[in-house]
Specification:
about 375 residues; alpha/beta; Rossmann fold; 6-stranded mixed β-sheet; about 10% strand; globular
């Protein structure tokens, strides 16, 4: 039986895809950005139809801001009858107020406050478990960590064992250096069964976080540096090809022949022809190296990373691949390029989400054994 999930801050649905791939069932979604709703409904419908299942077109269950939702209303929308004994809540509240590229307004910022609202909603819904995703700055920046600790204490008071960790997508098999903070909470009696021991109130390290041994410490591998634009560098033998952008941009068929493959900003500057392959030291005009991982896919003001061998920025399809989104997920033509790239870079890489979801499912299975 698939475990039902309520998805908040659904965005384009990448987090949902990872949990679906791990065998969960997303039965309710919430997103209030009109562009993201358009992208989600088109993209998820195209992906679901590719699975060969007779599925209804994907749609966002509730387009209101989480600030305007009630726990009772959410439960009524999500479940036709009584609430199930086992269900979860997932979501990644907007993170600019905690990120280095944002304002550092913290929990009092217009976006940061949504993390508090989300924590309150979880306490009211009282699911079996929850997973919260945010930027690493929520833990690494001292003033933000103080806010995080308050929220975690609140959730623990509601009867949850809570654990948290910064995971890097690169170490889970995604060709991108992307650190994200994940907070996992499970009702304490269930968590103790899964951990096979009694847990103290504030105990950490009890959850079995996903690890891919082959990629642990991947950043320390002898990655290539730069090469003149237009040349064909060779791949170092020690580098796993799957951790480079090569398969996404060169090795899995021509992305330009796929939907969204020609969705890129037109190149006007002569700099597109001069920046070396692999030069990502600058704030803008970062050019990827075909045999290296991508820096964090976090685009703004058309500053999408440059293609290693072509005088242009990445296309939407190429960016989706770097986020490990299936090719069957397609964004509609009517979406603006800016909206498409914003949707892509706001998502959790699907492979990363799938690894985490599998870890949650395995823990719950062990707890029920």
């Amino acid at each position: 039986m698939e475990i039902p999930l309520l998805s908040f801050f659904t965005g384009g649905g990448f987090f949902d895809i990872g949990f679906k791939q791990a065998g969960f069932s997303v039965c309710w979604t919430n997103e209030n950005c009109p562009a993201f709703i358009t992208g989600y409904e088109y993209g998820m419908s195209s992906w679901l139809s590719s699975l060969g299942k007779r599925a209804q077109a994907a749609s966002i269950a509730n387009p209101k801001s989480i600030c305007n939702l009630t726990s009772l209303g959410v439960l009524r929308e999500a479940f036709a009858g009584p609430r199930p004994k086992l269900f979860g809540v997932i979501g990644g509240p907007p993170c600019p107020d905690f990120s280095n590229g944002g304002t550092h307004a913290g929990g009092n910022g217009s976006n940061g406050i949504l993390t508090s609202v989300f924590a309150n909603m979880i306490c009211e819904l009282h699911p079996t478990f929850f997973v919260i995703e945010n930027v690493s700055g929520l833990y690494r920046v001292r003033k933000h960590r103080a806010f995080l600790e308050i929220k975690i204490a609140q959730l623990r008071e509601r009867g949850y064992a809570v654990d948290y960790k910064i995971l890097n997508a690169l170490e889970l098999g995604v060709p991108q250096y992307r650190e994200r903070l994940f907070i996992v909470g499970i009702k304490k009696n269930i968590a103790q069964c899964g951990a096979e021991r009694k847990l103290t109130v504030a105990e950490e390290g009890w959850f079995t976080w996903p690890i891919v041994d082959a990629y642990t410490g991947a950043k320390s591998l002898p990655w290539p540096t730069t090469a003149p634009f237009g040349e064909k560098p060779t791949k170092p033998k020690e580098i796993p090809l799957e951790l480079t952008v090569y398969p996404a941009l060169f090795g899995k068929g021509d992305p330009e022949k796929l939907p969204n493959g020609c969705d890129f900003f037109n190149p006007y500057s002569s700099r597109f022809n001069t920046i070396p392959e692999g030069d990502v030291a600058r704030k803008s005009f970062k050019r990827l190296h075909r045999y290296r991982f991508s820096p964090t896919a976090w685009y703004g003001n058309q500053e999408v990373h440059l293609h290693p061998s072509k005088a242009r920025r990445l296309s939407v399809r190429e960016a989706l691949r770097i986020q490990s989104v299936p090719d069957e997920y397609v964004l509609p033509e009517e979406m603006t390029l800016s909206a498409k790239f914003k949707l892509v870079c706001n998502g959790v890489p699907c492979v990363m989400a799938s690894h985490l979801a599998t870890a949650v499912k395995s823990f719950l299975k062990r707890a029920s054994a």
